């Protein structure tokens, strides 16, 4: 059985490249990739302009009531601010970039056509962290792993590993079974959470890991399920953490099983 340290002995890039080659040999073809295209993408927001009326009045009860009443009666002035002008582009597999919501296709299919299956292909990490705060970092990631099937390799994956030689097929099954068994430990090491893996995640009321470590736990939860696309929204303040989180993303894009 290969350990997490064994998988990552030569770094994340080597781990993903070696594992994908092993699996592709048994599949008989390259692993499926996901190409995202966006067309005429434009985003705008309507902003309400603040009024200075009554701003310098004394803070009496009467002035507060008057200002509130006038504010309800007056028309609110607003302006439309363009955030993203119409743009068109393609997100190729094994690349990193920034994309905003809009008219997007996935391997030529629209969001409506993939509405119920889209979560199988794309992981989204928002700005807010939602955890069971009394669990440790490792327990939280192990729980996320269990929610995606745990250490059991999906049957459809095993059934597809029959197009290589007998040794190639057996090697691919062995590697995947070992990877699924220790994947939470692999994620812990990739995200630099080894030193705090036994510390409770915590929240505003319970002291736990730091804010940056908690954010990495959130990103780690999204790693399970072998999704080919990861979307991050301001996930890592600070250049050091950002490099740690994104360093393995391009190579990981090949290992989506």
UniProtKB/TrEMBL annotation:
The keyword Transport applies. Keywords: Transport. InterPro entries: P-loop_NTPase (IPR027417). It comes from the Eukaryota. This is ABC transporter domain-containing protein. It comes from Aphanomyces astaci (Crayfish plague agent).
């Amino acid at each position: 059985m290969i350990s997490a340290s064994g998988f990552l002995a030569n770094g994340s890039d080597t781990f993903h490249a070696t594992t994908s080659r092993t699996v592709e040999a048994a599949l008989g073809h390259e692993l499926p990739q996901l190409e995202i295209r966006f067309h005429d993408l434009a985003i705008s927001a309507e902003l309400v302009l603040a009024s200075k009326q009554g701003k310098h009045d004394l803070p009496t009860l009467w002035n507060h009531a008057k200002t509130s009443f006038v504010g309800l009666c007056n028309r609110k002035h607003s302006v439309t601010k363009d955030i993203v002008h119409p743009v068109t582009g393609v997100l190729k597999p094994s690349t990193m970039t920034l994309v905003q919501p809009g008219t997007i296709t996935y391997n030529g299919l629209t969001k409506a056509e993939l509405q119920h299956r889209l979560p199988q292909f794309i992981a989204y990490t928002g700005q807010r962290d939602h955890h069971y705060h009394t669990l440790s970092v490792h327990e939280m990631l192990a729980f996320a792993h269990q929610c995606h099937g745990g250490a059991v390799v999906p049957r459809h994956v095993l059934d597809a590993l029959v197009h290589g030689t007998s040794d190639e097929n057996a090697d691919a099954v062995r590697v995947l079974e070992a990877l699924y068994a220790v994947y939470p430990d692999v994620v812990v090491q990739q995200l630099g959470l080894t030193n705090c893996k036994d510390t409770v995640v915590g929240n505003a009321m319970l002291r736990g890991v730091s804010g940056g470590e908690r954010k990495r736990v959130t990103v780690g939860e999204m790693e399970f399920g072998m999704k080919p696309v990861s979307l991050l929204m301001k996930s890592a303040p600070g250049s050091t953490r950002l490099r740690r989180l994104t360093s393995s993303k391009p190579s990981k894009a090949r290992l989506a099983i």
